Amino acid sequence: MASSLTLNRYLSSRWGRISVGATALGLLWLLAHQGYGTSLYLGSSEALPPGPPFDFGPMKADPQAQELGFPSYEDIWQFERKLGQHFQPNRFTEPHPRPRYLFVRDIDPGSGWNNVMQEFLLHAHLATLSDRSMVFHPFTPRDHAPLPDTLPSGDRHHIRIPLNAIISGASTGAPLLPDASDRMIRRAVSIEYFNAVCGEQRKEIGYNDVMHGFAMDDEREGDERMMRWAKKLKNMEDRCVVVTGGSIFPWWFTGGFKVLSIWPAYSNGSTLREFAWSPLVTKTIHDHYHLLTPPSPPPAIPPYLQPSSSPPARHSYNAFHPLRADAAPIPGLLAIHVRRGDYEGHCHFLADVGSEYTTFDKFGTPGIKVPPEAGTGYPGDPNAGPEAGFIGSAIPKGYKYPALPDYLSVPKGEGKKEAALAHCWPSVAQITKRANDIRKGASESRWGLSKPQELRSVYISTNGKEDWVKELADALKKDGWERVASSLDLASGGKMSREALTVSQAVDQGIMGAAESFIGVGFSSMTGNVVQVRLGGGREPGSIHFW
């Protein structure tokens, strides 16, 4: 009788009702699990999600976005919500150890996509090293809106693009391992989920405060910066860590040479190893594949660009697979990145201040080598506090950086400023000659290429005006290229959806990453991201060039 009364009191209590409800929910989850999950990211060796799907509630309407005619991205938002790591926490299904998260809040909101991408991927690598789930968030283009975003009132209403419309891979919720055997509680989660499950559990730490505790400045090696942050974040007991006060890897840091020492571990980590462009990018390249190959013989679209179902569900986000960085290249394609428009003024500024190439575009610079602390560690300043002492290096002993064939060279008889302008803002004649030189060299297996390349087509990624792009395309055709297409051809061909138009930079980057050879602007963060994705995906350094 006593035990019966105790049970009745327990069941009538608040915690008793919650526990029974959680148990029932858990049983329903186990019974229904066979139909649960996102088909893109399920693997045969993958463990069950840690709990039943999180109940986000209905999607909130955005009347102003509807008024402006923005794409809804509904299928992509739903895809992100249904990631297996977005589970309902409760006392019975929550695993041990519990999920831990890293959210870097104050990335420069005025930055363009490629500056954001550079910083985001480095933060994702840091999250992996610190045994935390990366928190990803939508991209909001403020400086260069892909669609008109001014309301009749004159106010701007920024478009919010889900990150999985642009990129895929470990940094946006995919498995950390190719066979999906990794622990689901370490996979990246959306900011929507993070906000829902963390609430008041957030622990904010200021970027400047942490760097002061490390006794570090921007003159110290990137490897040391990464390892000190990883150790601190890994040792923190707080589940929901938010870094405030700026990016851990800001643009002025990535523009210097110290960032290079991050590469050895970063290039072998899941962030780059499992990187892919979104299924939306894959679909758009599939629909325009005829523009990327010679007119004869008729091109055969490679399997990785084919629909994942037959017939394809054309309007489904899952109709195509993500475009992996390690997929086979598009045969015979040379992709070139040519900045125009307001970039001319920026080129003059870069030349005036003596700027170097961005991030990993510097790998061709003569004389660069890993820091002497590689394979051992950094002594730091133990007198400055416990977090400023010795920290180990992630660079293998004897490591050598990949050797790109080009760098910020200064031809004999030219000044550095004049040379920098030619590297940054090449003329039609210079572009045509450079493309021809690469075609000839690639056919002879120069620059350490493992086999000859028969380059026959050119894709021009550019923001140039129509008349200038036509002049360049005509010059390339006259020089013997069998097919020449550009960003303008994709945008004006009528096959790009409104969703694809909003991520057209990523479409171009997907093409530049998949090309057999590539020529880019060493100062540009867009080129820089293509370079790191190509190298991370196993493309040969000899297939990467600059103007």
Explain this structure.
There is one protein chain. The chain is of the alpha/beta class. The chain is built from 20 helices and 15 strands. Strands 4-2-1-6-5 form a 5-stranded parallel beta sheet. Strands 13-12-9-14-15 form a 5-stranded parallel beta sheet, sandwiched between helices. A 3-stranded antiparallel beta sheet has the order 3-7-8. Helix 5 links the parallel strand 1 and strand 2. The longest helix is centred in the N-terminal third of the chain and has 19 residues. This is SH3 and PX-domain-containing 3. It comes from Mycena indigotica.
- Beta-strand content estimate: 5-15%
What is the percent of helical residues?
25-40%
How do the strands of the widest beta sheet line up side by side? 4-2-1-6-5
Oligomer status: single chain
Q: How many separate helices?
A: 20
Characterize the largest beta sheet: strand count, sense, and whether it forms a barrel: 5 strands, parallel
Q: Any low-confidence stretches, pLDDT <50, length ≥5?
A: 1-37
What is the global morphology? Answer: globular
Structural class comes to: alpha/beta
- CA radius of gyration is 25 Å
| β-strand number | 15
Protein name: SH3 and PX-domain-containing 3
Organism: Mycena indigotica
Task: Provide a quick synopsis of the model.
The chain has 547 residues and is an alpha/beta fold. The protein has 20 helices and 15 strands.
Primary descriptors:
547 residues, alpha/beta, 20 helices, SH3 and PX-domain-containing 3
Give the secondary structure arrangement, pairings included:
Blueprint (H helix, E strand, L loop, with lengths): L1 H11 L1 H19 L30 H6 L5 H8 L19 E4 L8 H17 L3 E4 L30 E2 L20 E2 H8 L3 E5 H8 L7 H14 L4 E5 L6 H4 L8 H4 L3 H4 L2 E2 L1 H9 L35 E2 L5 E9 L4 H11 L23 E2 L12 E2 L23 H9 L3 H16 L13 E6 L3 H13 L4 E4 H6 L5 H5 L1 H11 E6 L4 H12 L7 E3 L1
Parallel strand pairs: 1-2, 1-6, 2-4, 5-6, 9-12, 9-14, 12-13, 14-15
Antiparallel strand pairs: 3-7, 7-8, 10-11
Helix pairs in contact: 1-2, 5-20, 12-19, 13-14, 15-16, 19-20
Organism: Mycena indigotica
Protein name: SH3 and PX-domain-containing 3
